[in-house]
Write the structure tokens for this entry.
Amino acid sequence: MSSNLHPMLNVAIKAARAAGAIINRAALDVESVRISQKQINDFVTEVDHASEKIIIETLLTAYPGHGILAEESGKEYGAKDSEFVWIIDPLDGTTNFIHGFPVYCVSIALAVKGKVEQAVIYDPTRNDLFTATKGRGAYLNERRIRVSKRTQLKDCLLSTGFPFRPGDNFKSYLNMMADVMQRSAGLRRPGAAALDLAYVAAGFTDGFFETGLSIWDVAAGSLLVTEAGGLVGNFTGEADFLEQRECLAGNPRVYGQLVPVLTKYSKFASAGDKAAVRQAAAAEPETTADVPVSASAEAADGDDTVKGEDAPF
């Protein structure tokens, strides 16, 4: 821990590293990890629960008067009426983790009066620690990071996620990806939204977009991006996105070029835009009719559950 960091950030780092140690130990024998399914394409493991437990214990030991909003336990722990709320995703990328695919992370954010002021994203497989304090910049392993400087969408590497669950419009999402893919240099789907946002902040990718995300998926990453000089919002470019279940991030120039492409896919799009998207989807040949729902798309992040959709701070 560093003496020049905000004390609350230092505690969050301690919590994230403790959770990372649990995750790394479990990853040595991932076949023995107990897994349950919350819903189709939505998995939780005993490691998620153990990671969340150590994070909450660490935070509440230091700040017993703070509130907690965690993926697995919701608001069960912590003060119920505090202006300080820790937003926790104990293992973002659970589906990757249970397959031994080494792309997952711990995400911890502190919101004060509804605004994110501290952020930690820890990648235990690489020992990469992303941190940010509002107004003080974003860092990777104590080195200052900035979003990329690319200005043309055609030169950009973008990341996304396939949040396919029952009720999702699969064909519309495929059309959205096609719109982006033909305008960019490449599209990646790593499988952990929090880490995707950290990579935008570090300039490893130039932009990120995804729907169906919960607040714990995006809270920490959003501060990293803005403190690294980037922009974050919903698909129409509105900055108040944390609980809207759609997220777009990028360096300012790329963000500005992605908004016109993605706006029509936003749930806040105009009626005309939504009609055009429906017509385009209807015109597509039926390609997924014979595919079981559970196999017809990516298993999301195992984390983007709908249970927190309307959860206020």
Summary: The longest strand covers residues 84-92. The radius of gyration is 19 Å.
